[in-house]
Structure formats: C-alpha cells, structure tokens
Amino acid sequence: MFDTPTLLALDFVPGVGSQTLKKILTKCKNEEICLSHLNRVSFEELTKHWGFSSKSASLWFEKRVYFLNSAREMLDLLHTYDISISLFLDNEFPKDIHLYTTHGPCFLYLYGNKKLLQSDTFSILSSRKSPEFIHHHISSLTKEAILNGENLVTSGTAPSYSPSYITALKMGSPKIIILDTGFFVAFGLDGKQEINPTFKIWREEFDPITDLAISAFSPFKKFQHGANKQRDYLVASLSKRIDFIHIRNGGNMESIYQKSKIFQKKVRKIDINLNPPF
Question: Does 107 share its domain with 54?
Fold first, then answer.
C-alpha cells in the first residue's frame, strides 16, 4: 500500500511537508489505495482530493519522473547502508511524539541496533546554555542509570547532550542517537564517522551493531530551523524515563518537562546549586 519510492519522491517535492504526507498516507490506508496511485492522477485531483497546493501539484505533475528516479537512487543508497524507514503508522514508530508536538515527522530513518527500541531507556535533558559545571552532574546521572541496566537516548550535536553521550561511550553502553540533520551529513558519505569530532578520542567510528541512530530528516539534509526542537521531542518520546536538570523557564526543555508530567511520564526534576564549588 505504501510504495516507498513514491513516498520518498513526494518528500522531495517543495511544499509537501510531513503533515501533508500524513494526510496522504492516512487517506491511502482508509480508502485502501496504493500510494503509487499518485503517479497517475491529474493536477485537479491532486489539489481537490489529496491536499496539494497548486504549486506543489504543478511540480509533482510536471517533474514526478525526475522525483521518482531520484527517490529510487536514494532507496538504493539506503539499502546499501541498511538504513530502514519507519512510518508514523508503524508499530515501532515512537507514538509518544504526539504528546510533545502536533507537527511530528511522517516517517523516520533508522540505522543500527533497532532492538534498543524495546529496551529500558532514559534521557537526561538540560537547557542549551546550562553552565559547564552542570555537565559533571549529567555524567554522574548517566553512569548511575547505565549501571542500573538502562540504555541512553541522546544526541551528539548540542553541548547539553555531550556529557551523557561521552559517558555512554566510555562505558561501552548502547545508546539511541537522535540526529538533527540527515544521516550522511552526520556520519559522512561512508556512513561511519562519529557525529562529533571530539568523540573520536573514545571511538573512531559509529557502531551500528551497538547503537541505533534515528533521523527525521532526508539523508543529505543539513541542519535547518526547528530541527533542534524536533530532535528534543524525539529524545523525550523514545525515553521511558527522563531526568531534567537545570532547565530554563519558558524554554523548550521546560515545555517538554511540563508535557511529560501532564501525560504521566516517569520524570525527575533535579535542582542543582547554581554556585559551582571552588
């Protein structure tokens, strides 16, 4: 029903975002229509029945062969690196994402150890500009959780995530890594490099046998506005337990904390003396 080349091709079309794709896939499921049906419909049907804007419908109608060929090339590349796709309708898709945003991704790219999705997971969330001495506390909390048998959900491109990421690396512990770019931007064209050059002290290459990397963005997509929020929502939604430490009032982490409490997620808010020891 969900023809993957057509799905990727539609994702290439400017103006066809995640929310439009969700509506298209839901319509396909409810009406038992194969997604490839959109390869044959008229401009009028695209705008009247499938939610396309006039501009997006024109682009798809005129250039769909180009978009489909590009999608098939992309799919071959994904297969080469064993990168899979999880739709928002799939069982393995993080359902908790809807707790945090009504504009979650339509599908995710997954690379590595998918068994971690069924494990006991935790994350440690802190505001972006947390003082550096807070990092010691984040590392200690990470070590405690790992020794307790939990697996870390984190990212590697923001300073507030680095202490937990590095601690897990040092301990050789599996982790789920949420990206805020596409895979080949994060891991390089060979799909192997560590996402942060400073992490190479502890590990030369990303290890897909141990870890799982997840991205909501097309494989060659660079960082874009709003990607950090999408990343944080995914970290929270994939965590069965969350520690919040030094979160700024009115910030994104505070919003995630409040929403986590409302939906009775297992959370702790840890207050630290803001005067560092000397």
Answer: no
How does 69-99 read in b/e, with b if 16+ C-beta sit within 10 Å?
Answer: eebeebbebbeebebeebbbeeeebbebbeb
Q: What is the DSSP letter of 193?
A: B
Domain final position from 53, 80, 107: 80
Q: Indicate whether 76 and 112 sit together in one domain.
A: no
Angle between helical axes of 252-262 and 227-237 (0-180°, round to 10):
30
58-76 pLDDT, tens per residue?
999 999 999 999 999 999 9
What's the distance, CA 83 to chain centroid?
A: 13
The model's pTM: 0.91
- The answer on 215 and 177 residing in a single domain is yes
Find, among 119, 208, 211, 209, the residue nearest to 165 by Cα: 211
Task: Answer yes or no: do 35 and 146 share one domain.
Answer: no
Q: Is 169 helix (H, G, I), strand (E, B) or coil?
A: helix
E-state strands within 71-230: 84-87, 107-112, 121-125, 151-154, 175-178, 212-215
Q: Which helix (H) or strand (E) holds 80?
A: helix 54-80
Distance CA 39, CA 274 (A): 58
pLDDT band at 142 (very low <50, low <70, confident <90, very high): very high
